[in-house]
Each structure stands twice: as structure tokens, then as C-alpha cells.
Design brief:
By secondary structure, this protein is mainly β. The protein has a single domain, classed as Beta Barrel (OB fold (Dihydrolipoamide Acetyltransferase, E2P)), CATH 2.40.50.140. It contains one helix and 17 strands. A seven-stranded antiparallel β-sheet has the order 9-16-10-13-14-15-17, with no helix packed on it. Strands 7-6-5-8 form a four-stranded antiparallel β-sheet, with no helix packed on it. Strand 6 and strand 7 form a beta hairpin. The protein is globular.
């Protein structure tokens, strides 16, 4: 998917880089798969702010995505590729032979009219969903389950993909987008191909107002705060703030926060790169 740099006819367009959305085939979502979501503005049920820097934004309706792909052995056809305001990747509307329509995450190279199927064993074509045990080694996969039947958890954002490295017993070894190598049960399902909209990371907003349209309010730098508000606040003059850390004092920039006693540690063969 190509990106485009705009001609700076206004200050807000000077640095803006936009997605051309050339893969999008329709701007009208399937009404039966829409759900309204009430905004909180970062407030709890008492009206008190519990999450900072949230509020405003354009009105959105949630698209119900089928992450489980649990209509097995039934052929489906891709009807459209659409934009989803709740995620970085595009989504595809598919229609099954029995007439049911569902949204799935769009894969890179998936075209309108493509036939898809979800089964324990299927041809390793882009968009097909199958068990990891039956996927050929070296295949690019995405939307990977971590618990059988729970639905896709790993490699779901724009441009993400993992690689199937090895099979041994009831586990397979996959290399994740972060660089981590871990074991996953071979009975879990995954989708063949990489997630769409890989150029999402190249886009540049160009102005603060575009962040407000997304529902993000201005963020205060910790260094500019007072000592009572943040560990990096205060000091005489323009202090650097000391070691980078969160509001609760947890160090950032390389500090590992994963529990040493976590049960799933034994499934991680190689940690992600720093």
C-alpha cells in the first residue's frame, strides 16, 4: 500500500504523509456487523478521570471481527476490503456459502472474489485458517491463537506476521514480530499470510488536530511537571528529569517488567531483542 506526501498548501500539510488507501474497495460497512460504543472520556462511573489524555474524537462504530474463524469446512468469498477506525489493519467482509457474513482481518494481497476456508487442514493459501500442525515450515502466518478455541491473539496489527520455524511433539516453534521465539500448541489455529496495511507506520499526522480527531488529548511531558505529580518533575531551572521512569516509578528504556515466576516463561525459547 503506497503512501503520499502532500503538497504543503497549508501549515498542517507541510509534514503530513497520508495513506492512499488504494486497497479499500468500499466505504459502506455491513450494518449487521456494527455495534455502538459509548465513550468514557477516561472517566469512571463516578465521573472521575482515571485515564489521562483521552477525550473527544470522531464518533465511531465498532466492527465485530471474527477472530475465531470457527466456521469450519465452509467456503467463503471476500466481498470487500474496508477501513476499520478501531485498528491499524484493514478488514475484509467475507460471505460463507450458507449466506452468513463476517468480518475478518484483511491479509496482504487478499483481493475481492478470493475464496477462503477455515479447517484443520487446508491448502496454505493467503487467508486460509488452519491448525499450526498442518502448516508447512517456513510459512508466513498471522492472527495466531495462544489457547485453542480462544481466538487470534498474536500478530494482529498492520503489517504484522510471524514465521513457523519448527514442529516437535504437540508444540510448534514460531518467531514473532518482536523477535521473540516461543512454543505454541500445535492444535492452535493461525491464518496464512501477513496482515494488511504494512505502510501504516510510515504515515505522519502533520498537525495536533489529527490526534484530537482520534480522541487523544495533549500529553504533558513529565519533566515539565512538579515533583508531587511525577518522579521526573521538579528541579531548579531546566532539569533533565533523571532516569526515565513512569508515573509510578517503574524505570523505562530497557527495564524488564515481565515476572520471573510467570508460568508461560518456559514456552519462551528466545526473548525479544532489546
Amino acid at each position: 500500500m503506497p503512501v503520499r506526501k502532500l503538497k504543503p498548501i497549508t501549515p498542517g500539510q507541510r509534514f503530513r504523509i497520508v495513506n492512499e488507501y488504494s486497497e479499500i474497495t468500499t466505504s459502506n460497512p455491513e450494518k449487521s456487523l456494527l455495534k455502538t460504543i459509548k465513550k468514557t472520556g477516561g472517566r469512571n462511573n463516578q465521573g472521575r478521570m482515571t485515564m489521562r489524555y483521552k477525550g473527544g474524537g470522531h464518533k465511531k462504530r465498532y466492527r465485530i471481527i471474527d477472530f475465531k474463524r470457527d466456521k469450519y469446512e465452509i467456503d467463503a468469498e471476500v466481498l470487500s476490503v474496508e477501513y476499520d477506525p478501531f485498528r491499524s489493519a484493514f478488514i475484509s467482509l467475507v460471505k460463507y456459502k450458507d449466506g452468513e457474513k463476517r468480518y475478518i482481518l484483511a491479509l496482504k494481497g487478499l483481493k475481492v472474489g478470493t475464496k477462503l476456508v477455515s479447517a484443520k487442514s487446508a491448502p496454505p493459501n493467503i487467508g486460509n485458517c488452519m491448525q499450526l500442525a498442518n502448516i508447512p515450515l517456513g510459512t508466513t502466518i498471522s492472527c495466531i491463537e495462544m489457547t485453542p478455541g480462544k481466538g487470534a491473539t498474536l500478530a494482529r496489527s498492520a503489517g504484522s506476521y510471524a514465521q513457523l520455524m519448527a514442529k516437535e511433539g504437540k508444540f510448534v516453534t514460531i518467531k514473532l514480530p518482536s523477535g521473540e521465539t516461543r512454543l505454541v500448541l500445535a492444535s492452535c489455529f493461525a491464518t496464512i499470510g501477513a496482515v494488511s496495511n504494512s505502510d501504516h507506520q510510515l504515515t505522519v499526522s502533520g498537525k495536533a488536530g489529527r490526534k484530537r480527531w482520534l480522541g487523544r488529548r495533549p500529553r504533558t511531558r513529565p519533566v515539565a511537571m512538579n515533583p508531587v505529580d511525577h518522579p521526573m518533575g521538579g528541579g531548579e531551572g531546566r532539569a533533565s528529569g533523571g532516569h526515565p521512569r513512569s508515573r509510578k516509578g517503574v524505570p523505562a528504556k530497557g527495564f524488564r517488567t515481565r515476572s520471573k515466576n510467570k508460568v508461560s516463561n518456559k514456552y519462551i525459547l528466545e526473548r525479544r531483542k532489546k
